[in-house]
Structure to design on (168 residues):
């Protein structure tokens, strides 16, 4: 919680109850829960498969022995809840023994997740922390999709079989 205050100017009075840490920020409540064991239903491995930029990602997620879940409950806008979630996750991502961050339907290297969150310091949105942009090739061209827009009340997007490149 100290990092939240120092880095994001978010002051919290956290309460621990077993493996759950909870606190309030404005009209939002945050719960961080510690769970022994790997994520169920091979979720980490499924999300790892969508990260084409980290070749060792499957080795890393197969190694994890515990995980945290972070939940933000709010009466505020989904965007404000999303920004608070990213701030909490960025602080957690840089703790000792963190192997990876599972967010927006993909697995991030902890330093990269933290780097993307820094966009908020100049007022920009940490889009890559909240929404995953996936790409895949078919015999007909490049296809792309989003994962995470639904959390903001929007429809996901899928573009099929374009002739462009990922940068386009």
């Amino acid at each position: 919680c100290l990092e939240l205050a120092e880095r994001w100017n978010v002051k919290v009075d956290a309460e621990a109850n077993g493996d759950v840490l909870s606190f309030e920020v404005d009209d939002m409540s945050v719960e961080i829960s510690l769970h022994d064991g790997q994520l169920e239903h091979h979720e980490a491995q499924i999300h790892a498969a969508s990260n084409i930029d980290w070749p060792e990602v499957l080795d890393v997620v197969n190694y994890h022995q515990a995980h945290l879940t972070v939940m933000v409950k709010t009466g505020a806008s989904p965007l404000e809840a999303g920004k608070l979630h990213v701030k909490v996750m960025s602080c957690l991502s840089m703790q000792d023994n963190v192997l990876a961050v599972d967010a927006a339907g993909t697995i991030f290297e902890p330093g990269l997740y933290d780097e993307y969150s820094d966009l908020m310091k100049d007022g920009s949105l940490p889009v890559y922390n909240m929404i995953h942009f996936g790409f895949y090739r078919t015999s007909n061209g490049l296809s792309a999709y989003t994962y995470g827009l639904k959390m903001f009340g929007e429809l996901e997007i899928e573009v099929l079989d374009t002739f462009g490149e990922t940068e386009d």
Notes: The first strand starts at residue 15 and ends at 17. Strands lie at 15-17, 20-25, 28-36, 66-74, 101-103, 106-108, 132-138, 141-147, 158-162. The chain is about 30% helix and 30% strand. Helices lie at 2-8, 43-48, 57-63, 78-93, 110-117, 127-130.
